[in-house]
Q: What sequence folds into this?
C-alpha cells in the first residue's frame, strides 16, 4: 500500500500535493488523485462498514460504482470516493459508522447473521404491537447513507439546452471514434464521458492503449466535437429526450444539460462483475480493473502479495501490472479449471485464500477477473430487453431502435481496431440518420415553402456484427458470498428467498432488496440473476433480467431542480403598494395587496367616503367580431343577443356538466367590440373554453378572442364619493347618474390617459367605477386618484376589505362559495338561467338540475350571537348529531353591521329563510345561526350601487 | 415527454400543449337523453392502441386539433388536421 | 385439508435457523383448474384482499386470483405507500378510515410484519384558498372521528425541521392539515401478507396467467356481451375457466378487462411517476404533501426519500417515465426543503392509474350479472386495498352492495351523482 515511483500512465501531478482529512486525520495526495487513490496510497484499507452486518469493507471496483466507497464530504453525503478528486482542505469521513469505522459496535449483528437473513423483519417485531415504534427506530439506525444538514442552502445549479445532432454516451475508444466519424460526416456531436478524462479503459491499459487514447482525444478536440467530462447521460426519455448531468462545472454546483438527440450512440463499455464466494467482501478483495486503475493511473500498489483469479485477458494484464509494481502474484486461471473457494482474514482484510484444489495461499490482495456486465440501461430506457448469450456469459441488446445505436463492448468484442471500425460505422450511420430525422422534423412544420426537398431514404444499418468472445460462465464459486454489496445481500439469502417463493427476479429483488441500493445493479444484477437461475435449476436466459430504470447514474436533486423558474405577476402599481405599507398575499400567480394594515377601517371608509383598489389580476378578454353575441350566449347561461353598446351584463358560465365554471361581467364597448372579465384564477381557463367552442362546434362564428389581463391596469373606485372623485379626472364622459347608469361602460380619458374604459358595477356593494387603464399608465392614474381624492377621504383598500364588503353584499366567489359539484340553480339566481335559448354550454344538465332537491344550495347565514365568527369551512350539522348538512363557505365580522355575516351551503330542507342551523366551531363548540332572506346582508335592494 | 406534431407549429414538446382527451361528438343538447349526455360527459374510450384525441397547442398556435396516437407506443399516425378545417363535427 | 404453514415469529426465526430449516413457500403453486366459484383478475393488493376476505370472512375458498405478471407487479408495488384517511367527503373519510383500521392490525391479523409506520401526515397550504380546503377537510374528518387539524408554520417546523417555513419561498407555507394516524407501510409486504393469508385458507394464486377474454351470455351487445348478460367464465393464456363470478381488480388495465365483458367505464389510464433518492440518515419523520406543488414525500426507515407527483398529462399505457417529472418534482421539493439539494435521485419509475372524473373509485356490481368491478382507483388505490377487499368480498358473498361502497357505484355517472372528492384526492397522497 504505497505510492509507487512515477508510472508511465499516471494522471496525478506530483508537483502539486493536496492535503485533506480522513475521519479528522491529516492525509495527503496529489492533484489528480481520487479520494480512493489518496486513501489507499496513505495505507487506508477499510473505508466503510456494510449495511446490515457492519462488516469492514474496502474498495472493490475502485470506480464510480464502487459500493463500498461512499463517503461523507463536508455536508455532502454518499460521495463516490473512487471518482471524486481530492481538493485542498476536503473533510472526508466514513459514513454510518458507530462509534467509529474501526470499531462499529453494531457489528454484533454479524454474529446473528444466521437469523437475520434477507427479509427477516417481515417475520418478526409484530408482537407486542406497542413495541413496533421502538423497533422502527432501531432499524432506522441501520439506514446506510451519509447525512444532510437541513440548513444547507440550495446553491447555484444550472440547466442548459443543447442542440446536437448526435449525443454519444461514453468517451472510451469507441465513443470517441463514433463521435469523430459522426462529426466527420457533418453532424454536430456532443460527447459525454462519465470519468474526468476521455479514454475509457485505455487509460489504465498499456502504452499502445494510452497512445491511442491520446491520439483519439486530440482528434476529437480538433474535429469540433463538444466534450463534457465528469458528466453522465443519465436518462433517455420519449423521442430521444436526453438528460445529461454535468458534475464538474466552473460556476454551478452541477448542471443538467438537456438535448433532443436526433440519434443517441450508447458506448458505455463494460462493467467488471464481482465473483461470489465466501469472504468476497473482505477488504483487499478487488476486481482486476480496480487494481489496474490503482497501479497505472494513480501509481498506488493496493497489495504486495496478490492472488489473481482470472478468466480473461484483462485479468492477465492486471498480473503484469502488479508484477511491474513489485507485488508477488500467484495466478489462478479459471480457463485451466482452477478456482477459488474462500477468502481468509479478519477485520483488517484478506490474509489468504483457499483454492478449489484445497491449496491455501497467503495474500493481502485477492484479485478477481470473472467477467463483465453490459450496462444496457440507456437501451432499456429506449425499449430494448437485453438477451443473455451463454457462450459470452453476458447480456446483449436484442432490439434494433432507429435512433439509438450501441457500439463498443455493449455490441460485442474484437480487437481494438475492429471495435473502432464498428464505432466509426456507427458514427457515420448516426450522422446519416440524424440528417433524415432533421429532415422529417423540418418537413413536419408548416411552412410556405418546403425547406429541404425530398425526404432522404432512411439509412440502413449495414454495420458488420461484432464477434462475441467466449467467456467462462463464472458467477458463484462452491461457497456462498455477497452478491449485493450495498444492501449486504448474500447468495445464501437469495437461495432462501427463492425457496420461500420469491422466485422471479422481480420478487426476489423486492424481497431481498438486492439491486436496490446506490449502485443500482451495476455490479450485482447479473450475479443476482445467476444465483436465482441456479436456485431454480433454470438457465439465466429463462430467468431474464430486471429492467434498468433511469437515471443511469444518480443525479442530485439540486441539478434536477435547478432554479425555480415560476415567476410571479404584479401590476404596474406594485411599487406603490410596496412603498405604502401593503401586506401582500399570493393569489395564484399574482402577488397583490391583502390590506394596508386595517382592512375593517378600509371597508368602513369605502362605505362612507371613497376607496380605491388595484384589481389588475381580474381576467380580461377582448372580444371582437360580428358573432360575439352568439359566443356570449353560448358561454353564459343568460341572454346576450341584445346587449346594447355601452351596456354591461353579469353572467355565469357552466361546464357541460352544469357545474359553475366562472363568472364576471362583459360589456359592449363598440358595435363589434366587447370586453369580458373573468375571475383572476379563471382567465386562462375561460379563454381556452371560448376557443374550444369557436374552433370545434362553431368554426363559422367570426370572433377574435385576445387575452388582455396584463394589458390593462384595473382600478376599482368605490364608495359614495366615487363619482365626485372620478368626475375630477374624467372630462369626456357625462357621469350624471342618468347618463352613465349602473351596469354601463364608457371609453374615457382618465387623468389625461386616453383609451381607458370604465364601467359602473358594484362587487363591493357601493357606487363604484372600475377603470381599466393601458397598463403603462396604471401608476399615473392611481396616484392621480389619490391626489384628487385627498379631501374626500380616499384610502386604498386590499383584497381582505373587498372580501368583507362583497360578503356584506352577499356576492359569492366561484371556487370558494361554490365547489366542484355546484350547479347554477344552487346559487339562487334563477333569472340567470334562460332555458329558452337554443343551446348553451351545460344546457341539458342545468335543465335537469332544476328538479334536483338533494344537493346543497347557497344561502346567507347569520350566527345568533353577533360576536361569533365561525371559521370558513365550519360544518353545519343536524342538531344533536354529527350528520353534515352544510358548511360555512365565507365568514367575516362585518364592520358596517358590527356583527358576523356568512355565506354557506346547506341542504334544501334547511335553506328556507329563518331556518335555524347548528354550526360546529373549529374548537368543537356548537352555535346556532339563522338562514337569511337575502344573500345580501346589507342593502339587498341595491340602492347604494345604483346611487 | 413525447413530441406532438402540431399541424401549425410543427413538432413540439407535449409540455407545450394541453391534452384534451378522446374526441367525442357532442349530442344534440335539446334531444339527448340523460344517458346519452352523461356518456358524452364521462365515458371514455381507453384502448391500448389507436386513440383519436384532441390536443390544444397552448404555448404555440392556440389551435385545437385531432390526432391519432397509439397509446402503447405513443406514436402518432396520420398527418394531423386542425379541427376547424374538419368543419362542424357530427 | 391443507396443512397450515408455520407462523412467523422471532422465536421460530431463531429455532428454524438453528435447525437450518428452510421456510415453506409464502404461497403455494397449484395447477390451474377449469372451474372456480370466484375468479379475481389482478394479483395486486385489491385482488388479493378480495380473495383473502372471501375466504376469511365468508368461507368462500374456491377462489382463483389470476395475475398476468407476478403478484404485486402493478400499482401495489409502485406506489409511494402512504396511508391516510383525511379525505374531504364524509363517505370518503369513513371508507378510508376503515382501511386504516385494517392496516393497523394487519401485521397481527396476517402474521406478516407490514411495517406500518404511523408517523403522521401533513398536507401543506400555500394560499388562503388551500388553507380553507384544509380546514374543510379537518372539520369533516373530526365529525367522522378522524384525527385531523390545521396547524401553523411553527408547529410544522417542529414536525419537520427541514421544511422552509420562512416567508421567502415562492410558495410560502401558511399552514397544514395535520393527520397523526397517517403514515407509510411496506407495500410489498402487504401484497405478500394477503397472498400468504389467502393461500393458508385455500385460495389459489396463479402468476403469469393472463385473461384474454371474458365469457358473457345473454347481453345486449355483440357476442352476447354487455348489459343484461351474465358472466360464465374467463379465457386465459393457459386455458378456459368457468366461474359464475368474475371480479375486475386490474387498475390501469381496468378498461381493457371491462371491455371484454362489454361494460363501459368512465376511466382514463394515465401514468403516475415516482422516484427514490439514495439513503441518508433520517431527518424527515412525517409524510409531507403539497397539493399546490404537486408533490408528496416521505423518508423510509432505510433513509431514502420516496416521492411522487400528480398523474401524467396524457393517456398512455407506456410507463417509461419522464425527465420533466424528476425536474419538476425536484424543483418543488427544493422549494419546500432546500437542505436536500445534495441528495441524489437513484431511480424513477411509473405505474398506471385508472382515473375517474370525480377522483373516486368504481366498485360493486355492473350491468353484467356476475361481473364486478373494483377499479377507478386512480392514485389512491393502495390506501384502500384492505377495505376494498373486505367490501367486495361482502358484496360477492351477500349479493348486495354494502353501504360503505354504495356511493362508488358505476351507476352514479348515469345519475350524475358524483362524489366531490377532487379537492382531497387530486394530488392527495
A:
Amino acid at each position: 500500500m504505497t505510492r509507487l515511483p512515477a508510472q508511465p500512465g499516471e494522471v496525478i501531478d506530483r508537483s502539486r500535493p493536496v492535503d485533506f482529512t480522513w475521519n479528522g486525520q491529516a492525509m495527503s495526495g496529489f492533484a489528480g488523485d481520487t479520494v480512493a487513490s489518496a486513501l489507499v496510497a496513505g495505507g487506508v484499507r477499510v473505508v466503510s462498514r456494510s449495511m446490515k452486518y457492519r462488516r469492514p469493507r474496502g474498495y472493490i471496483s475502485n470506480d464510480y460504482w464502487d459500493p463500498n466507497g461512499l463517503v461523507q464530504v463536508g455536508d455532502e453525503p454518499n460521495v463516490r470516493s473512487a471518482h471524486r478528486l481530492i481538493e485542498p482542505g476536503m473533510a472526508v469521513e466514513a459514513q454510518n459508522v458507530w462509534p467509529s469505522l474501526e470499531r462499529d459496535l453494531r457489528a454484533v449483528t454479524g454474529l446473528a447473521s444466521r437469523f437475520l437473513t434477507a427479509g427477516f423483519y417481515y417475520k418478526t417485531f409484530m408482537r407486542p404491537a406497542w413495541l413496533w415504534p421502538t423497533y422502527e427506530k432501531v432499524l432506522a439506525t441501520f439506514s446506510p447513507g451519509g447525512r444532510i444538514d437541513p440548513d444547507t442552502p440550495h446553491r447555484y445549479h444550472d440547466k442548459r439546452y443543447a442542440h446536437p445532432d448526435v449525443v454519444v454516451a461514453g468517451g472510451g475508444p469507441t465513443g470517441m471514434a463514433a463521435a469523430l466519424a459522426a462529426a466527420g460526416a457533418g453532424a454536430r456531436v456532443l460527447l459525454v464521458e462519465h470519468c474526468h478524462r476521455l479514454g475509457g479503459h485505455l487509460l489504465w491499459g498499456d502504452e499502445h492503449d494510452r497512445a491511442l487514447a491520446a491520439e483519439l482525444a486530440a482528434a476529437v478536440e480538433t474535429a469540433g466535437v463538444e466534450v463534457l467530462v465528469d458528466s453522465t447521460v443519465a436518462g433517455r426519455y420519449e423521442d430521444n429526450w436526453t438528460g445529461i448531468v454535468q458534475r464538474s462545472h466552473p460556476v454551478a454546483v452541477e448542471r443538467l444539460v438537456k438535448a433532443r438527440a436526433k440519434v443517441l450512440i450508447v458506448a458505455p463499455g463494460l462493467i467488471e462483475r464481482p465473483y461470489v464466494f465466501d469472504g468476497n467482501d473482505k477488504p483487499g478483495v478487488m476486481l482486476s480493473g480496480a487494481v489496474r486503475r490503482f497501479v497505472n493511473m494513480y501509481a498506488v500498489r493496493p497489495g504486495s502479495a496478490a492472488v489473481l483469479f482470472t478468466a480473461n485477458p484483462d485479468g492477465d494484464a492486471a498480473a503484469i501490472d502488479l508484477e511491474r509494481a513489485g507485488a508477488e502474484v500467484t495466478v489462478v486461471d479459471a480457463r485451466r479449471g482452477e478456482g477459488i473457494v474462500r477468502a481468509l482474514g479478519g477485520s483488517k482484510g484478506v490474509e489468504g485464500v483457499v483454492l478449489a484444489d484445497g491449496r491455501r495461499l497467503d495474500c493481502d490482495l485477492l484479485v478477481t477477473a470473472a467477467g463483465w456486465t453490459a450496462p444496457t440501461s440507456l437501451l432499456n430506457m429506449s425499449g430494448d430487453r437485453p438477451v443473455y448469450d451463454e457462450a459470452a456469459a453476458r447480456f446483449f441488446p436484442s432490439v434494433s431502435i432507429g435512433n439509438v445505436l450501441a457500439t463498443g463492448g455493449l455490441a460485442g468484442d474484437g480487437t481494438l481496431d475492429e471495435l473502432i471500425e464498428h464505432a466509426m460505422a456507427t458514427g457515420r450511420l448516426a450522422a446519416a440518420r440524424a440528417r433524415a430525422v432533421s429532415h422529417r422534423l423540418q418537413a413536419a412544420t408548416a411552412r410556405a415553402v418546403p425547406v429541404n426537398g425530398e425526404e432522404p431514404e432512411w439509412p440502413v444499418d449495414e454495420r458488420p456484427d461484432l464477434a462475441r468472445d467466449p467467456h467462462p460462465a463464472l458467477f458463484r464459486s462452491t461457497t456462498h458470498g455477497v452478491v449485493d454489496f450495498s444492501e449486504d445481500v448474500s447468495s445464501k439469502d437469495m437461495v432462501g428467498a427463492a425457496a420461500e417463493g420469491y422466485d422471479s427476479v422481480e420478487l426476489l429483488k423486492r424481497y431481498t432488496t438486492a439491486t436496490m441500493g446506490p449502485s443500482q445493479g451495476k455490479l450485482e444484477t447479473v450475479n443476482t440473476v445467476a444465483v436465482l437461475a441456479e436456485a431454480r435449476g433454470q438457465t439465466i436466459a429463462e430467468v431474464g433480467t430486471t429492467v434498468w430504470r433511469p437515471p443511469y447514474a444518480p443525479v442530485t436533486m439540486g441539478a434536477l431542480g435547478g432554479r425555480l423558474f415560476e415567476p410571479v405577476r404584479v401590476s404596474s402599481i406594485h411599487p406603490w403598494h410596496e412603498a405604502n405599507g401593503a401586506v401582500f398575499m399570493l393569489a395564484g400567480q399574482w402577488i397583490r395587496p391583502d390590506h394596508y394594515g386595517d382592512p375593517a377601517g378600509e371597508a368602513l371608509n369605502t362605505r362612507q367616503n371613497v376607496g380605491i383598489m388595484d384589481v389588475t389580476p381580474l381576467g380580461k378578454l377582448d372580444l371582437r367580431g360580428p358573432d360575439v353575441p352568439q359566443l356570449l350566449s353560448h358561454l353564459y347561461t343568460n341572454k346576450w343577443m341584445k346587449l346594447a353598446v355601452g351596456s354591461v351584463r353579469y353572467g355565469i358560465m357552466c361546464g357541460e356538466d352544469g357545474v359553475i365554471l366562472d363568472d364576471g361581467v362583459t360589456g359592449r364597448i363598440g358595435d363589434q367590440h366587447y370586453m369580458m372579465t373573468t375571475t383572476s384564477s379563471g382567465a386562462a381557463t375561460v379563454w381556452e373554453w371560448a376557443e374550444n367552442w369557436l374552433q370545434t362546434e362553431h368554426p363559422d362564428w367570426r370572433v377574435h378572442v385576445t387575452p388582455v389581463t396584463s394589458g390593462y391596469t384595473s382600478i376599482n373606485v368605490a364608495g359614495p364619493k366615487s363619482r365626485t372623485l372620478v368626475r375630477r379626472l374624467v372630462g369626456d364622459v357625462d357621469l350624471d347618474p342618468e347618463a352613465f347608469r349602473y351596469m354601463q361602460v364608457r371609453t374615457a380619458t382618465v387623468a389625461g390617459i386616453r383609451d381607458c374604459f370604465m364601467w359602473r358595477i358594484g362587487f363591493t356593494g357601493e357606487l363604484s367605477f372600475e377603470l381599466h387603464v393601458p397598463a403603462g399608465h396604471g401608476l399615473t392614474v392611481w396616484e392621480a386618484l389619490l391626489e384628487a381624492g385627498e379631501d374626500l377621504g380616499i384610502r386604498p383598500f386590499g383584497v381582505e376589505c373587498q372580501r368583507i364588503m362583497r360578503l356584506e353584499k352577499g356576492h359569492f366567489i366561484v371556487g370558494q362559495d361554490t365547489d366542484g359539484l355546484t350547479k347554477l340553480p344552487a346559487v339562487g339566481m334563477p333569472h340567470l338561467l334562460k332555458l329558452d335559448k337554443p343551446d348553451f354550454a351545460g344546457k341539458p344538465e342545468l335543465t335537469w338540475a332544476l328538479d334536483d332537491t338533494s344537493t346543497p344550495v347557497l344561502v346567507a347565514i347569520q350566527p345568533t350571537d353577533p360576536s361569533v365568527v365561525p371559521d370558513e369551512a365550519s360544518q353545519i350539522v343536524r342538531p344533536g348529531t354529527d350528520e353534515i348538512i352544510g358548511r360555512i363557505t365565507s365568514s367575516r365580522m362585518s364592520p358596517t353591521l358590527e356583527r358576523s355575516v356568512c355565506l354557506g351551503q346547506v341542504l334544501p330542507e334547511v335553506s328556507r329563510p329563518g331556518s335555524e342551523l347548528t354550526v360546529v366551531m373549529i374548537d368543537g363548540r356548537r352555535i346556532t345561526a339563522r338562514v337569511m332572506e337575502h344573500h345580501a346582508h346589507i342593502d339587498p335592494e341595491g340602492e347604494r350601487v345604483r346611487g | 415527454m413525447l413530441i406532438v406534431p402540431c399541424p401549425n407549429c410543427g413538432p413540439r414538446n407535449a409540455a407545450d400543449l394541453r391534452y384534451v382527451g378522446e374526441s367525442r361528438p357532442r349530442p344534440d343538447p335539446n334531444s339527448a337523453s340523460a344517458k346519452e349526455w352523461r356518456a358524452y360527459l364521462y365515458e371514455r374510450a381507453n384502448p391500448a392502441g389507436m386513440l383519436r384525441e384532441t390536443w390544444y397547442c397552448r404555448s404555440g398556435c392556440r389551435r385545437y386539433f385531432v390526432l391519432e396516437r397509439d397509446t402503447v407506443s405513443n406514436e402518432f399516425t396520420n398527418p394531423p388536421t386542425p379541427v376547424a378545417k374538419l368543419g362542424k363535427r357530427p | 385439508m391443507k396443512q397450515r404453514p408455520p407462523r412467523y415469529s422471532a422465536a421460530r426465526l431463531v429455532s428454524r435457523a438453528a435447525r437450518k430449516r428452510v421456510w415453506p413457500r409464502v404461497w403455494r403453486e397449484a395447477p390451474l383448474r377449469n372451474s372456480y366459484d370466484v375468479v379475481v383478475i389482478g394479483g395486486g393488493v385489491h385482488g388479493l384482499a378480495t380473495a383473502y376476505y372471501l375466504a376469511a370472512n365468508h368461507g368462500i375458498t374456491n377462489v382463483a386470483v389470476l395475475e398476468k405478471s407476478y403478484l404485486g407487479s402493478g400499482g401495489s408495488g409502485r406506489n409511494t405507500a402512504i396511508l391516510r384517511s383525511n379525505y374531504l367527503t364524509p363517505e370518503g373519510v369513513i371508507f378510508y378510515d376503515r382501511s386504516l383500521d385494517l392496516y393497523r392490525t394487519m401485521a397481527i391479523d396476517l402474521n406478516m410484519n407490514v411495517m406500518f409506520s404511523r408517523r403522521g401526515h401533513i398536507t401543506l397550504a400555500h394560499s388562503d384558498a388551500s388553507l380553507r380546503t384544509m380546514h374543510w377537510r379537518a372539520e369533516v374528518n373530526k365529525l367522522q372521528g378522524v384525527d385531523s387539524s390545521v396547524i401553523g408554520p411553527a408547529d410544522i417546523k417542529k414536525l419537520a425541521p427541514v421544511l422552509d417555513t420562512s416567508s421567502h419561498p415562492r410558495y410560502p407555507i401558511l399552514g397544514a392539515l395535520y393527520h397523526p394516524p397517517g403514515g407509510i407501510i411496506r407495500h410489498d409486504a402487504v401484497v405478500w401478507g394477503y397472498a400468504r393469508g389467502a393461500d393458508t385458507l385455500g385460495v389459489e394464486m396463479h402468476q403469469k396467467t393472463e385473461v384474454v377474454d371474458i365469457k358473457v351470455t345473454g347481453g345486449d351487445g355483440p357476442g352476447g356481451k354487455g348489459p343484461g348478460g351474465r358472466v360464465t367464465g374467463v379465457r386465459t393464456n393457459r386455458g378456459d375457466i368457468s366461474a359464475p363470478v368474475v371480479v375486475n381488480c386490474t387498475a390501469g388495465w381496468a378498461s381493457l378487462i371491462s371491455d371484454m365483458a362489454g361494460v363501459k367505464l368512465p376511466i382514463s389510464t394515465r401514468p403516475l411517476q415516482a422516484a427514490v433518492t439514495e439513503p441518508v440518515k433520517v431527518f424527515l419523520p412525517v409524510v409531507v404533501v403539497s397539493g399546490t406543488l404537486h408533490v408528496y414525500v416521505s423518508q423510509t426507515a432505510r433513509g431514502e426519500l420516496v416521492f411522487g407527483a400528480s398523474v401524467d398529462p396524457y393517456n398512455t399505457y407506456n410507463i417509461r417515465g419522464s425527465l420533466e417529472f424528476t425536474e419538476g418534482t425536484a424543483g418543488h421539493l427544493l422549494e419546500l426543503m432546500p437542505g436536500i439539494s445534495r441528495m441524489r435521485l437513484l431511480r424513477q419509475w411509473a405505474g398506471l392509474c385508472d382515473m375517474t372524473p370525480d377522483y373516486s373509485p368504481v366498485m360493486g356490481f355492473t350491468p353484467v350479472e356476475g361481473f364486478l368491478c373494483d377499479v377507478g382507483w386512480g392514485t389512491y388505490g393502495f390506501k384502500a386495498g384492505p377495505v376494498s377487499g373486505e367490501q367486495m368480498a361482502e358484496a360477492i358473498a351477500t349479493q348486495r352492495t354494502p353501504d360503505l361502497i354504495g356511493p362508488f357505484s358505476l351507476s352514479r355517472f348515469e345519475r350524475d351523482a358524483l362524489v366531490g372528492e377532487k379537492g382531497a384526492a387530486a394530488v392527495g397522497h
